[in-house]
Amino acid sequence: MEARKFTHEDQLEESEFCDRRIAGDGVDLHVVTAGIGPPVILLHGFPENWRSWRRQIPELVSAGFSVWVPDLRGYNRSGIPTEQAAYRLDHLVADVADLVTATGHPRAHIVGHDWGGIIAWSFAQRCPELVDKLAILNAPHMKIYLQKVKYPRQMLKSWYMLFFLLPRLPELALAANNFRAIRRMFRLGPLNKKAFSNQDIEEYVEALSQPGALTAALNYYRANLTMANVGRFLHPKPVNAETLVIWGERDPALGIELLDGLHEIVPHVQIRRIPCSSHWVQNEAPQEVNHALIGFLKG
Questions:
Q1: What is the pLDDT of residues 131-190, one digit of tens each?
Q2: Backbone CA torsion sign across 86, 87, 89, 95
Q3: Known active-site residue 145
Q4: CATH number of residue 131's parent domain
Q5: Catalytic residue among 71, 95, 114, 251
Q6: Residue-range definition of the domain harbouring residue 122
Q7: Taking Cα atoms as reference points, which of 70, 46, 114, 136 lies closest to residue 125?
Q8: What total number of domains does the chain contain?
Q9: Residue of 237 and 28 predicted with greater confidence
Q10: Is 87 labeled as catalytic in the residue annotation?
Q11: What is the value of pTM for the model shown?
Q12: Annotated catalytic residue 113
């Protein structure tokens, strides 16, 4: 276990944090931990890693929580399985269960963004006894997503997902010209153009440049969003945990209509919409996200 210092780039208080290695479901996970108190597990999305939560870690620690922030399997310093099937939700959910066990607490607060949010939804359905509170950031419940993607508005927004299901071509396109498409995603995608620093972008690109890493990230789509696999999302168990959904309204890939009907599946849900943010909400509007998240977890 390696102790280091994490300094919030906006000059918030320093918080000690540690790099840990934790055994997941057949894969070795790198996890950043900090703080003492009730555990909060933060799950990042595509194509990031634990750094996605760099603006939340100090605030959560200051609020009295212990924070557990993994690189999901296939990302950055975690193990990179080569088999596509290793990225199915069964294994991703099992990794989170192992993280909860590693905290030494019977339950944990689970927070997820993008693919981390999809994992968090599934985890809350499959392992409710391990969930204290649930928070989701710009990640649709898959039952609602599959209903809405049939219509042109969301179908057009989701074109890239179909592209990611193709073999090899997405890797070539994303890695071309020194990962130009990835760099543009982080520089031009957010409404707040300061959401990602040059250092952030370089560290994300460096992690994705590892052998097999880009294919691993794309395998989240390929292993779970094919016609053979989506049926599992159509008849979900209800999510009974207290749930907060934070949604950047200007998300170019996920329309605000994906919140319609959520109360029918998640009866104890609160929805916080952030009008001046896009998909990368915790990086674009960190103060609003932190205020809402900490208030919900402590409430």
A1: 999 999 999 999 999 999 988 889 999 999 999 999 999 999 999 999 999 999 999 999
A2: positive
A3: no
A4: 3.40.50.1820
A5: 114
A6: 2-298
A7: 136
A8: 1
A9: 28
A10: no
A11: 0.94
A12: no
